[in-house]
Design goal:
The protein contains 5 helices and no strands. It has 136 residues and is an all-alpha fold.
Length: 136
């Protein structure tokens, strides 16, 4: 766990910074800054729009009594994607866009569900149940 945090907070930002310098050397400083600013703005806008769409899907599924597991996972992915897109960097932007765009987000969702499923087994003290909204 400590190694993962070390990699996340030191190696990844260092690599992102190196990559930004490589892009700057190829296309120039102002162009690189514009890329960072524009991807942040476009990413925030897309995250807002996709987040609202996920909320609408969640409301529709709740009205129909359908368990919203897939929609909740997609909502978390949109949130993470939005955070990554406002973080300066090339790799974080690419990964963030893959979490925001519906087609690629739906490709990530099963892996995320599987990851959570392995951590929250039936033997754990946390259990997920559905809520139909009807009183007994």
């Amino acid at each position: 766990m400590l190694l993962r945090l070390f990699l996340l907070f030191t190696i990844l930002p260092s690599f992102e910074l190196w990559l930004l310098f490589q892009v700057k050397d190829q296309i120039g400083l102002l162009e690189t800054i514009w890329i960072v600013v524009i991807t942040g703005m476009v990413g925030a806008s897309m995250a807002k729009a996709q987040g609202l769409m996920v909320l609408q899907d969640l409301q529709e599924q709740s009205k129909k009594g359908i368990p919203p597991t897939q929609t909740l996972v997609e909502g978390v992915l949109v949130l993470i994607g939005g955070v990554l897109l406002v973080t300066p960097g090339i790799l974080t932007d690419a990964f963030g866009f893959s979490l925001i765009i519906p087609f690629t987000r739906r490709l990530w969702a099963p892996a995320v569900r599987s990851w959570f499923g392995k951590r929250f087994t039936a033997n754990s003290s946390i259990q997920f149940t559905t809520f139909s909204g009807q009183a007994s």
